[in-house]
Protein: Nudix hydrolase domain-containing protein
Organism: Eucalyptus grandis
Amino acid sequence: MLCMVSRSGRELQRYHMGRRQVVGCIPYRYKRDGDGVVGDELEFLVISSPKGQGLMFPKGGWELDESEEEAASRESIEEAGVLGDIECKLGRWSFLSKRYGTYYEGHMFPLFVKEELDLWPEKNLRQRIWMTAAEAREVCRHWWMKEALDILVERLGSIPQNERKPENDISLS
């Protein structure tokens, strides 16, 4: 069962050396053709900012009662309405929050999408858009997320075709 309300507040937020810890994911899938057949081309899911300030990948605060992977999965459900497999961490970045003028530490994971939800907590606040890696890199507003995307694309490109994620039975929109 999924919780259909976003967490809010910062009482449980993790901090490391004074920096707020945020965790996110880069949702991806293999593109389907008009007949629903999965091909080799990758697509990446970006979401709009609730304040209308560009596109990004799902991310948010890492809380004391969850692992990094649990936080990444929760954010993908809350902000993008997608479920899937969290994979090996892409890295950690230190960045300045323009909104708060303080440094944050961001942790990013790939998320192989297995299901898109019709309803999710922030559906009315965000749009989600599937696009190519080049398009996602172009529109993403955060430099550190672009770097994480580059790492993921390189990692996925090095996987032989016969070892890629198997086709799943779940229908994606």
